[in-house]
Amino acid sequence: MIDKIISVIARREFGRALNFDDNLNMQLPQSPDNNPRLLYLHIPFCEELCPYCSFHRILFSEKLCRDYFEALFREILLYKEKGYNFGAIYVGGGTPTILIDELARLIVFAKELFPVRQISVETNPNHLTPENLTILREAGVNRLSCGVQTFQDKLLKKICRLDKYGSGIEIAHKLRNTKNVFETLNVDLIFNFPGQTMEMVADDLAILKKLQMDQITFYPLMVSDFSRKEMTTNLGEFSSVMEKRMYKFISHSLHTEYETSSAWCFSRKSNNSAMLDEYVVDYDEYAGLGSGSIGYLNGVCYANTFDIAEYIRLLNDGRLPRMASRIFSHNDRMRYDFMMKLFSTRMNLKIMQDKYDGKFSNVLWKEIIALKLAGALRYFHPDLYLTKRGRYYWVIIMREFFTAVNNFRDHCRKSSEK
Question: pTM value?
Answer without folding.
Answer: 0.93
